[in-house]
Amino acid sequence: AQGARVVAKAKDAKDYSKLTEDVPLVLDNVAIAKILPHRYPFLLVDKVIAFEPGKSAVGVKNVTANEPQFTGHFPDRPIMPGVLMVEAMAQLGGVVCLQDPVSDGKGEFFFAGIEDVKFRKPVVPGDTLVMEMELLKWRPSAGIAVMKGKAYVDGKVAVQVGKFKFALVKS
């Protein structure tokens, strides 16, 4: 196939499957849904593979052709909209901020600002978007969290955000 890459160590489906055997599963989609208020089709974090409470998380979004945005963005060349990549990263940030020690999980975090966004690589169906979010600052008295993040596909940066600002709104 045109553009196909050959991995010398992998011979069949079992071998390719083993390439991810060392990737831990910290939170699956059921556990994520207990933390975040989002639901299909807008829950954009499929699993969390690394988590340091109050500090950072690494999560995965498996991009599939049957997602509703691809019917119009773009029909002949489906590309994941940049705003949805940023939203997926923000949701991963919510996994950090809606748990101890940052918060008690009550309420919701909303965007309060975003700065220094760079899109580096198109993300298309079949890609695995691996995202990292780091908490830079938490001001409990104001309910403001500041984070930064990057997302990768095949080891290459797809999007980076220098600063996310979130506001905690208590229910």
UniProtKB/TrEMBL annotation:
UniProt-listed Pfam families:
FabA
Asked if the keyword Repressor belongs to this entry, the reply reads: no
- Listed EC numbers: 4.2.1.59
Subcellular location per the Swiss-Prot or TrEMBL entry: Cytoplasm
GO terms in the biological process aspect are: fatty acid biosynthetic process; lipid A biosynthetic process
Q: Name one GO molecular function term.
A: (3R)-hydroxyacyl-[acyl-carrier-protein] dehydratase activity
Which InterPro entries does the record associate with it?
FabA_FabZ, FabZ, HotDog_dom_sf
Keywords from UniProt, A to Z, are: Cytoplasm, Lipid A biosynthesis, Lipid biosynthesis, Lipid metabolism, Lyase
Gene Ontology CC terms: cytoplasm; membrane
Q: Which HAMAP family match?
A: FabZ (MF_00406)
**What does this chain do?**
Involved in unsaturated fatty acids biosynthesis. Catalyzes the dehydration of short chain beta-hydroxyacyl-ACPs and long chain saturated and unsaturated beta-hydroxyacyl-ACPs.
Full protein name:
3-hydroxyacyl-[acyl-carrier-protein] dehydratase
What organism, scientifically named, is this protein from? Zooxanthella nutricula
